[in-house]
Automatic annotation (TrEMBL):
Coiled coil: 190-217
CCD97-like C-terminal domain span: 130-318
Record's keyword terms, sorted: Coiled coil
Entry keyword annotation includes Nuclease: no
Chain residue ranges for the region called Disordered: 1-26
Name of protein: Coiled-coil domain-containing protein 97
UniProt keyword Coiled coil, yes or no: yes
Length: 348
């Protein structure tokens, strides 16, 4: 073997591993996907109305770049902290960025599952319904928000129809009485402003009610004319007349003597008013109430009830695969509890 052949034999062979090369390119591609997902997530959060840091009243607003830096630092520091702080400002598709980590970290899994529930419209509605019901019970127990005077302020016309018109002048005087001996000048001014607002609100409600009544009257007249033309003769609706006359007669009697109804009837009307005000709260109709303090507040979650529902549904199933959506169970249970409660109000 000559020197030339020996050199050729000793030349290191370069083996090209197609498999490893493909893995490396896939890894690079995967990292690029993660990076793009991260940037989209951070830009979306930076454009949101999330609170990035505590500021004083006169501090200038944070710029987009400043918000982006804060969000990026929090994400790099802790996924859990990022999810807890900005989770509700994300989109549902942003959760995929954290999906691979949820099986490795209990805290990430906790926030991930919680946000999955938040972004699911069905479970979200159930959670809101549960929280409002818990808040309702708390407010009833505390007493102030659902006191007669506060409910009257929120719906003065309904109060007038169901309660106010059946009160004696003495009862009204006691209701509206101000303890001038134990009230400050500022509170007295506030009380007067609130009374003016109450009168204004009632007037607006009466105007709206009158407008609706006039619309309904017009619709009824058009229906009568239409029916008359169909039969080709002048229609006389004698059956309607006694009903209208009876209504007018009843109204006149009430105006002459509004206190003539029995005590039990007054109690029924009062309970109707209270039940309506409870339902308005549950339906989100209290315009001056900040529902975000309830709808976004986990403190109102009935965790014991939800956990029991999920356990019952699991053990009642033939296998874990047959478990339906948890939200269905929650919704049924909530409706039952609410229905029973609201029905009990009407019965009492």
């Amino acid at each position: 073997m000559n020197k030339e052949e020996d050199k050729q034999n000793n030349v290191p062979k370069v083996i090209i591993d197609d498999k490893n090369d493909n893995n490396n390119s896939q890894q690079i591609s995967l990292n690029e996907v993660d990076k793009n997902s991260e940037e989209k997530l951070l830009h979306h959060v930076a454009k949101s109305k999330a609170i990035f840091k505590s500021q004083q009243k006169d501090d200038p607003d944070l710029t987009f770049e400043e918000k982006l830096i804060i969000a990026r630092n929090i994400l790099q520091k802790s996924y859990c902290l990022f999810l807890s702080k900005f989770g509700h400002y994300m989109k549902k598709e942003h959760l995929t960025f954290f999906a691979k980590n949820k099986n490795e970290d209990y805290e990430i899994a906790y926030y991930f599952n919680k946000l999955q529930r938040y972004f699911n419209s069905s479970t979200r509605q159930t959670d809101v319904k549960n929280r409002r019901y818990q808040a309702l019970k708390t407010l009833i127990k505390e007493g102030e928000y659902f006191s007669e005077s506060e409910m009257m302020k929120r719906n003065p016309l309904l109060y007038k129809h169901l309660i106010g018109q059946y009160m004696t002048e003495e009862q009204k005087r006691l209701r509206d009485n101000i303890d001038t001996k134990n009230i400050t000048l500022v509170n007295l001014l506030i009380e007067n402003i609130e009374r003016d607002n109450l009168k204004m609100k009632q007037k607006l409600q009466e105007e709206e009610e009158q407008s609706v009544l006039e619309e309904n009257d017009t619709d009824e007249e058009q229906e009568i004319v239409y029916t008359s033309k169909n039969y080709g003769e002048k229609a006389t609706y004698w059956a309607i007349i006694p009903t209208v006359e009876n209504k007018v007669q009843c109204k006149n009697e009430i105006i002459k003597n509004p206190y003539c109804i029995s005590k039990s009837q007054k109690q029924v009307l009062k309970q109707e008013f209270i039940t309506t005000m409870y339902q308005n709260f549950l339906d989100g109709k209290d315009v001056d109430f900040d529902y975000s303090t309830v709808d976004e507040n986990e403190a109102y979650d009935n965790i014991d009830l939800r956990t029991q529902d999920e356990e019952d549904k699991y053990f009642d199933s033939e296998s874990p695969e047959t478990i339906g959506s948890i939200e269905d169970t929650n919704e049924i249970e909530t409706e039952d509890e609410l229905d029973i409660y609201m029905k009990s109000l009407k019965v009492n």
